[in-house]
Design a protein that fits this description.
Blueprint: H1 2-42, E1 43-48, E2 55-56, E3 62-75, H2 83-94, H3 101-115, E4 122-129, H4 131-138, E5 145-154, H5 162-165, E6 167-170, E7 176-179, H6 181-185, H7 187-191, E8 195-200, E9 213-216, E10 223-226, H8 230-247, E11 251-257, E12 264-270, H9 289-292, H10 302-311, E13 328-330, E14 333-335, H11 348-354, H12 357-367, H13 369-379, H14 405-412, H15 421-432, E15 436-438, E16 443-448, E17 451-454, E18 459-462, H16 466-482, E19 496-506, E20 509-523, E21 530-537, H17 549-563
Parallel strand pairs: 2-10
Antiparallel strand pairs: 1-8, 2-3, 3-4, 3-5, 6-7, 8-9, 10-16, 11-12, 11-21, 13-14, 15-18, 16-17, 19-20, 20-21
Helix pairs in contact: 2-3, 8-17, 10-12, 10-13, 10-16, 11-16, 12-14
Length: 570
């Protein structure tokens, strides 16, 4: 009994101590909270945003730049004029067309509803107001209307290079973030590091002159100096749009690249969008078809297969095709030429000039599936190019050892294998660049104040011999002069090129009415200044590349020849 009483007494003392400790702890924490609240009343914290880096063309002019904008807000207790009168004064500044009475009345109603909200002391009225508009509103002298400075992204050329650039939107925390293209890929570098300012202030929030203060300066983002040539870019934008309208295509892409460095000189796709008002467009506009969309390349792919066969020495330019006199049977399928015309005893050069599918099955059989796979792998087919644009994708290349004789036959003329435009121009540039791989890129230099860092061109291994390169170049020159697109050839200029018309696979079969038309070429054939790839999706005027993509290629090239100092040979 005595032991039990002693135990109860001990438990009572422990409980009492716990209560005392809790009371003591509560008093301490209450003091801390009050102290924290007091400090909050007399300190003003201000976040300092980091200016976003600019994106520049190769000549230093703006492709994307930071610009000053303002948030217009109202402090309800400070308003002197009636809400309706204020709404009527501000509305003309906030609509696209002040003469549009419907827009104006709708904006007046919107502003009035904001200005008459209950239990609100501060409310935003309009985001992204230009400095000139701010000045005009300030001139009205409306009491209670204030402005908060911010930063916006300015794209001086509007929709030009939109998919290449990307846009700046907001993340889940409401902070600026780059999406797609360069804005997405280099977001961390462009964003910089924000700072903050802490200043002692009175109860009304007014800074105390002799009060304590602390500031950490924001560090601006770096500028990107790209390889984009603005003259080339604007030419592509104009000509591509004209070509799509002329040939009734659903869309199209054009890429111009320096084949020796891999620097992208211009890249355009259509339909496009305005990155400065990206929210007006659907998500389907944002991805860049040049790096994201895959297609079966058709006959432009023949130059890669022929180059591989020449390098492997399984054929020579004058090797005679002994199956080119008619259709050829491969397993249960019959391979025909694109125009059902056959050329017995064709040489390898003739096969490229005539874009002969039967002849290419002959070349593919000489090379073999495993060897073809190895060459395509070296050319970068089935792998990301590593281009510095957010959103690059790649279709897989069928695994080595899993190719049937049908797979080999169809791949030899560019069907049954999928690539992206950037992969095709990278592979084509190997021929233009003397057999050496070069990686495509858009940014050539990073800059900030007095600091800069060059991004070296990445030149890879030599995958084609000089002999094979010269042989396939000669074939491409002949194809440009005497192939199915010879009517659009620019006489006197040295061009190595090849057309391609590929059927579009739909639900496991090919639709004969839907094609991708393409043309790849470089000029001059020796020591080229540029390589260009055109793709047109489902042209309606003609399904053939020789009548759509090829003339569009030359329409652009006619502007590029004098710009790059390329003179006629004769």
């Amino acid at each position: 009994m005595q032991i039990r009483l002693r135990l109860i007494g001990g438990l009572f003392l422990l409980a009492l101590a716990a209560i005392v400790f809790r009371l003591f702890y509560w008093q301490i924490m209450r003091g801390r909270v009050l102290s924290s609240q007091a400090r909050g009343q007399y300190e003003t914290d201000t976040a300092l945003s980091a200016p976003r880096g600019n994106i520049l063309a190769s000549d230093g002019t703006w492709l994307a730049a930071r610009s000053e904008v303002y948030l217009v807000y109202a402090e309800i207790p400070q308003l002197k004029d009636p809400p309706k009168a204020i709404a009527e004064k501000l509305a003309p500044f906030f609509v696209e067309d002040p003469e549009d009475r419907g827009q104006l009345l709708a904006e007046i109603d919107r502003l009035y509803s904001l200005l008459t909200k209950k239990e609100v002391v501060w409310i935003p009225l309009k985001q992204r107001v230009a400095p000139e508009t701010k000045k005009n509103i300030e001139a009205l002298g409306i009491a209670g209307i204030g402005f908060e400075r911010g930063e916006a992204r300015l794209y001086p050329e509007a929709s030009a290079a939109a998919q290449l650039l990307g846009f700046v939107g907001k993340n889940e925390e409401g902070e600026d973030k780059g999406y797609f293209g360069l804005e997405g890929y280099y977001d961390l570098s462009l964003t910089g590091k924000p700072g903050y300012s802490v200043r002692e202030s009175d109860a009304r929030g007014t800074p105390i002159l002799l009060g304590s203060s602390k500031e950490v300066t924001a560090i601006s983002g770096v500028d990107l100096v790209t390889t984009i040539d603005k003259r080339v870019q604007l030419t592509l934008e104009e000509k591509l749009k004209e070509g799509i309208e002329k040939y009734g295509a659903k869309g199209g892409t054009v890429i111009v690249m320096d084949p020796t460095s891999g620097g992208i000189l211009g890249m355009s796709s259509y339909p496009s969008y305005d990155p400065g008002s990206y929210w007006k467009y659907g998500d389907e506009f944002f991805k860049n078809p040049a790096v994201s969309d895959s297609f079966e390349p058709g006959s432009v792919f023949k130059i890669l297969v022929m180059a591989a066969a020449l390098d492997a020495k399984v054929v020579e330019p004058d090797t005679i095709c002994d199956v080119c006199g008619g259709p050829v049977k491969v397993d249960k399928y019959t391979i025909e030429t694109w125009n059902q015309q056959y050329n017995p005893n064709s040489s390898m050069t003739d096969i490229i000039v005539h874009s002969d599918n039967v002849g290419m099955t002959f070349v593919g059989s000489k090379l073999g599936a495993d060897a073809l796979y190895d060459y395509l792998d070296k050319f970068g087919i089935g792998k990301l190019t590593g281009i510095d644009l957010q959103g690059e994708a790649t279709p897989a290349l069928r695994e080595k050892g899993a190719w049937s004789i049908v797979d080999l036959a169809t791949a030899s003329f560019g069907q049954g294998v999928a690539i992206t435009p950037i992969q095709m121009i990278k592979a084509g540039a190997i021929i233009a660049n003397g057999g050496r791989v070069v990686d495509p890129h858009v940014v050539g230099r990073l800059e900030k104040d007095a600091w800069q860092e060059d991004i070296s061109a990445k030149t890879g291994e030599k995958v084609l011999s000089d002999e094979a390169v010269n042989q396939i170049k000669a074939m491409m020159v002949e194809a440009a002069k005497n192939g199915e697109a010879k009517w659009t050839y620019q006489r006197g200029f040295s061009v190595a090129g090849k057309t391609g018309t590929a059927l579009i696979p739909i639900s496991g079969h090919y639709d004969a009415e839907k094609t991708i038309a393409s043309f790849i070429g470089f000029s001059p054939a020796q020591n080229p200044k540029f390589i260009m790839l055109i793709t047109l999706k489902e042209p309606q005027s003609s399904p053939w590349a020789s009548e759509t993509a090829a003339p569009l290629w030359y329409a652009i090239a006619r502007d590029l020849f004098p710009y790059f100092g390329i003179q006629p040979e004769n």
